[in-house]
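re: that chain from earlier
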Amino acid sequence: MDAKMNIIVGLIVLLLAAIGVAAIVDYSDVYDVPMIEVSKQNEPLAVTPSAQAEEFGGHGFSQEGLDRIQVMMETAIQDGRIMSAIAMVARDGEIAWIGTAGEMGPGVPMRNDAIIPLASVGKMFTATAAMILYERGVISLNDPVSKFIPEFANVKVAVTNEAGETGLVEPQNPVTIYHMLTHTGGLKVTGDDFWTVRGAHVARTTTTEFARALAELPLQSQPGAEFNYGVTGASYEVLAAVIETVSGMTLETFMADNIFEPLGLDDTYFYVPEEKSERMPAFYRKENGELQLERAYGEDFPRTTYFHGGGGVRSAPGDISRFARLFLEGGAVDGVRILSPETIQLMISDHLGEKSTFQGFNGELSWGFGAAVLIKDRLSEDGVLKQYGWVGGNYAKLWIDPSEKIVAYFAFTLTPPGDIALLFEFDPLVYAAMTESYIDPSTTLTEVH
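^ sequence. v structure.
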């Protein structure tokens, strides 16, 4: 399977397994629509967990329940599905549990501080960077992208009439920053033209050059009319270009100065320094049903001048937990304020409404800024935010549950198309491990789950 097809299939997996899926999938081919069945959360798994799990404190979870996550990872390795994995559960601002399975490389056990590429989970960092500029009054959500990237002033919209004839018309509205944050700008984010532009610029030039080239392609819908994530979420590459243009910095430098360093994220990078290379596990791809080495232990991607706004950040569980606290604690962590509570609420709100094309299995998915949102609470039909989070490249998954004050992270070292079933298995195990619910203290776990 070539790289482009891997990404396309990966998107299918990403959309299906984004967040909030309380089910386990039985599947034999990633191209088929999976059959969903409710997981038997109280049925113990057969494998005994190894010592590669560390409990930091209860925080309303049972150790037995968390051990099932460990068993799930180890079983996947024994079955030849993956080579290594890591999972973290945090609550109330503290890590409650970290588990690892498999090896960083030959003979090297997986570390609980492994630094892993987050891929599209990195959109949460890019959205945070954009909202920092928003709060400083440097950009407005209604600013036309053409204010910063002039080529967007000349965009046209592709249309097809009833006779099947195609043509170009003027956009009814300008493409704005808000459209980039919500993937509603109508950008051409699929098809051969898109892949040609992407191939010419990603990891070769800069996000600004990519954005300029993307502006030469016709829009696929009127700005603001439709949600279209595309294959890679390319709107966030344009957003990165705006951040770099406005700040006069690379996205890497801007995030380091305004997010990583202030929050003390000492293990979060676009490119991992050489002295920490031993914390980068090997990655594998599935080829004819067998795992083949894709990237060696300690090997990073080659450094370029292109900093992915759609997902170039690498990080470790401790940093991920700390960053995620911004969305649980109103934009400040341990006295360090990055964003205001109002801006955090804006980011984790539903911005699509009826435009949402997601179909969640135990609720309704929509999009905020930087990630998807699950907007139906599992206890009621009220539109209460349940989760905010996303999946990156089918090997990293991060979600935040504001009601239960939970941060959950799961990653394994498999490149797209990944393993859809394994992604599905994580969420229900986290919730099944809960012994206390903050939604209603009088509610029993059988009622909650």
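The chain is about 30% helix and 20% strand.
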